[in-house]
Amino acid sequence: MSRFSSLQEELANLYYDRSKHSVYQTLPKFVEEALGFNFSIDQQWRGDEVRMAYLSDLIDWSDKRVVDIGANTGYFSLNLARHHGCRAICYESNARHCRLIERIADYFAMQDICVVERSVGIREVGSMVEADVALLLNVLHHVGHDFDQTRVNSPSEVENYCIEYLARLRTRVSTLVLQMGYNWGGNKTTPIIAVSDTRKFFDYQRRILSLAGWRIARGGMAFRDAAGISYRDLDLSALTGDSAAALRIGAESRLVQNLSVQEGMSEFYRRPLLLCRAEYASSRADSPAASSPKS
Ligand SMILES: C[S@@+](CC[C@H](N)C(=O)[O-])C[C@H]1O[C@@H](n2cnc3c(N)ncnc32)[C@H](O)[C@@H]1O
Predict the structure, then answer these.
(1) 88 lies in which domain range?
(2) HSE-up (13 A, CA, CB side) for residue 25
(3) CATH code, 38
């Protein structure tokens, strides 16, 4: 019997927990290699490795304090702490995912990982620890389902919620990496913006970010060519009132929107990855008043 078998079994139990967001991320390579096993996800459908490749040189992570809101099974935090010298604080509402991250961090004696088992809703976001960077990847479109269930009752209510949430987040960090899904709660029968309309979705995010005091500094979209899928920079210098110009990638100058739809990439790969900077310094006092819960 392998000397890792009981640890592997424990990690597998925590990983395959049959909750809504289990089997979402893979394990970081260094974990897989050291323990001699892996958790596979279909990277054609949803990729963490290609996102990590893009995130790696998005900013200088060294010595940064990063809050990873909705850290899931810790793929990004563990990788960033291990390979990029930052300290990561994982906020995750799923207790088993929290235990999984802690177990891995303990095994590798990673002092730079801290796990906070907490759902970060509109009331909590302004009281998180202050940090340099927030990762807010694929969490916000789940509002009303996974968290703050009484505050958002329809896709049309997501926009105002996000503006308020992001404004409050700006009191904690000055850099944000944002990714959002098109469908409210991940349900394609309740789109926030139609999946076929990348441009409208990009404009939606530009608007909510701007109203919350954030500026998009860099952004990437998934692109597939013979080498496979990778995230490529959008041309933000071409961004005017109309985002179409910025949504062209590479020499091909084809609209990302058309690419993703024509080439059958999943909804996940149509979600832009956005690096945002706080537009102006902020204090907790200037965040918008909390919206009252709906009856
Ligand atoms: C769709 S997954 C995204 C995971 C990861 N951020 C990524 O993009 O690979 C959402 C994760 O966030 C967690 N979650 C959802 N809402 C949350 C909240 N308000 N605060 C903390 N964690 C949350 C879920 O348990 C799940 O692990």
Answers:
(1) 20-217
(2) 26
(3) 3.40.50.150
